[in-house]
Structure formats: structure tokens, C-alpha cells
# Entry
Amino acid sequence: MEKEFFIDYIEQSIINNWDRDALTDYKGITLQYKDVARKIAKFHIVLESAGIQPGDKIAVCGRNSAHWAVTFIATITYGAVIVPILHEFKADNVHNIVNHSEAKLLFVGDQVWENLNEEAMPGLKAIILLTDFSLAVCRDEQLREAHEHRNAIYGQRYPKNFRPEHICYRKEASPEELAVINYTSGTTGYSKGVMLPYRSLWSNIAYCHEMLPVRPGDHIVSMLPLGHVFGMVYDFLYGFSAGAHLYFLTRMPSPKIIAQSFSEIKPRVISCVPLIVEKIIKKDILPRVDNRIGKLLLRVPIINDKIRAAARKEAMAIFGGNFDEIIIGGAPFNADVERFLKQIGFPYTIAYGMTECGPIICSSRWENLKLASCGKATTRMEVKIDSPDPEHTAGEIICRGTNLMLGYYKNPEATAQIIDANGWLHTGDLGTMDADGYVTVRGRNKNMLLTASGQNIYPEEIESKLNNMPYVAESLIVLQKEKLVALIYPDFDEAFAHGMQQADVEKAMENNRVELNQQLPAYCQISKVKIHFEEFEKTAKKSIKRFLYQEAKG
# Structure
């Protein structure tokens, strides 16, 4: 019987990979596993001396970095509860989360710290900078003393060098013990603290070990924000527990940075949001394969084997050429881009999950994935469609199992709304499930538009078509005065590169509307187009914040 302790994964990896490289800030520092272990030991000395108890909360807010990762591992191996906060959050949201979670310490990146106000977070004992672990604010003399003398105390405690046999961390008392409070970014504008127990972390990491082939010394690029559970689990915790060498890209990378860094790092597995893959396919791969056909390749079946092979070769190379598969998640994937990838035999898979499941609900290996689906229920999870005919009629996706959260922190009402009396989590997503158990997400329940004629419309399906039309960067379909309107942010760079003026762009968008309507049933025709001159605001996982645009008046 496998021991189901999450901390065991961390302990064993540090001991077994002592002299290997562990964490690298791209173009910056590298820590080996033994360096991480020493930093953790000093960290624990400061926490003990400052009277921090197991179960106390420690918040971390900053861009991905080796020190962010050390803070997370040191907190959790001490038995304290880590509260990762997305660095994109506005200052007042960060203040609210620190206060709501009752965090005793805040570890913060220098860019985030510039915008924060320590007076707004009176419960903190100290604020510590992630750059060098120096004290930015300290309100506790014991902590200041311990921080100042941590090297001397460490020297006394380990007089003959710190070695693998010294690695013995506090084990979780029970699988139900709280490990992480992850505040969701959400597309509805309100952050809730998702309480993830150790069993959820263990189960998600165990699933990655079952499905992915990372070995000690393999490379992983961490580009999704670690404050979001998708990047935290797939890149960081799985990579670290597998003995991999993690590289942190300090910002959500452009296609150019990806091409440059990936060719150098050659990652073994890659997890990313659809937006990145879509941009790379449209901007970098299609033009190289055949400049004349360009985006048309997305919409016609590729019958030419030569084109198919060339496209696959280009796509593999741009992501470093050494990866087993790319895991895409966090937002809907463009249907035409996906069909193109499937045609060229590109090893991608789509994972479906929620922060509330830490995150994995459905996923399958790329070899088995069916087009447009997000795979089957993951190990240790049950998934059902709340519909009389799950194969043909969309219903709410509901799930339960080992990955599931304990609930929302200090919010039993919200917990009761999402988890029913039988332990099923109601995801708010609509989907279907075929006879083989493959789930296809149709859209968000709350995004579904109900027309005057009583028809249900899933805007994501229309947007997916529109986003592949000429000069469209991104779009939103909204209901205004009972009519469907397309809000479009055009690809101005591409349009201007082709010598177009603003009037030409408007005309192109109107042509897109007419062409799109020819592909759509009568009940979901687009009545007009509205051009946006700035990108739509997005959450950390790059989903558009729909709620900001739903009420736009026509």
C-alpha cells in the first residue's frame, strides 16, 4: 500500500536528488536540491523562534521565482498553511486576502510590495522580500532576533554540515489536514479562499506521476503563475517531487520568449493556457508552413502529407523539441486550432479542472484524447453530467473524490452552494459525456445566453469560430437588447502591416460577421459588431473577465 503522505514526496526528492539542480530563475540564480534543503532549515529556525505554530497561515505574493518555490515548500514542510496570492491582484485585494486568511507573515516580490500598504495589514508579524529574504517590515522582536541570527543558530544546530540524513519534516497528521488556501481569481470578480487538504495535493501529484514521464534531471519550464493551482501542481510540485530541474520564466511569456527559452531549456512536459498555443500556431507556425495558405490551414482538412509533416516539425521545434506532451488548461481551447493540432499529430492534451479540485477533474494522455474533449475522469475522481441524456444533452458537470477541497475558508454558505449533501461539487460548467466516459465542456453555466425565443446559446462556441477569422485577435459574444452582439478586439498589428486603415478594419469585421452568420443557425445570428481598441481584461489564467462586458449597453 502506497503511503499517502504529500510531504514524503518532497522529503524523498530532496534526499534522492541532493546534488542535482532544482530551481533556476531564467537568466538568474540556480539552487540545487541541497541548497533548497538548507534554506528550508534556516526558514524553520526563524518560524520556530518567532512562535509560528503548525496551522498558522503564511502568505506569498510575487512573480514565479526560486525563492517563491522555497517559501512554499518551507511553509508546508513546517506544517504551516501556505496562502499563495496571484501577483496580478490589485493591492486592495491582496490586503483583503492577507487579512481574511489571518496570515502571520507575508513574503512579497519587490514589484508587488511597491503598491502595498503595511498599515492595511495590521495582523502581520512581518513582511519579507522574496528577492533576498530580507525584512521589509517587522513588528515582532523575537522574529527580528531569529532572522538576524539564523545563520549562527543553523551552525550550532548542524555543526558538521547539513546532510541528507537531517531531512525529516513534519508529516501531515491526517490527509484531511489543511495545507493550502488558494484564493480564486474567478471571472465573476470575487475571491474565495479554497481550502485544499494534503490529500488533494497528494492525489493530484500522484496522478501526474501516473500519467507523465518526468525523470530526475529532466527540465520543466514554469510559466503559469505559481499562485494559480494549475501551475503550482503541474509545473512546480510535480516537477520538484520528480527530481526535475525547474526553470521559472518571470512573466507570462510572449511567443518570442518561448521560442528562445524553450530551444535552450528543452522542457520534458509543458503546461500552458490555450492563448499561448493559439498565438504561436497563428503567428509563428502557419506562416512558416505555407505563407500563401496561412490561416486557411486552420479551416480546411490537410490532405497533403508534406504540409502535415512540415507543420508538426515546426510546432515541435518551437516548444523545444524534447517534450512528451503539452497540457493545455484553464480556459476554452479554440476548436479550429485544436483540429489543426490533431491533424498534424501534435502531442497535446486538454486538462479540465478547478481550483476547488486542486485542480484536476478530467484529463487523458494525448494518444487517447478525443477531439474537443478534455478526457475522462482522473484517478480517484468520479464525474457525472447532470442531464437525462448526458451523451446528447448538455448538463452541469459534477464531481467528487480525493482531489476535492474541504470548502471555502470562513464561508460555509458558499461551500453549501457548491458542494451538495452527497459530496458532489457542482462545477457551474456545462458538458456532455460519451459512452466511453470522455467529457466535452460546452460552456459556463453562467455564461450561457438565453434568447427571447428560449434558445440556449453557448457563447464560447461562437467565439471559437470568430477568433479564427481574418484580423480577429479575440472576441466576446454578449446579449444586448435581446440580440447577439460581437465585441471584437482586432489584431491591429497584422491589419496595419497589410496597409489597412481603421475603416478597412471595420469593414473586415463586418465581413467576418456576415461570413460567421452563414455558419450559424438562425437563432444565434450576430446582429452587429462592436470594435474594442484594447485587449479584454483577463484573469491570471487568461480567461476574459466576462462580467465586465456583459452589461455593456447597445
In short: The two ends are 62 Å apart (CA to CA). Residues 502-519 form the longest helix (18 residues).
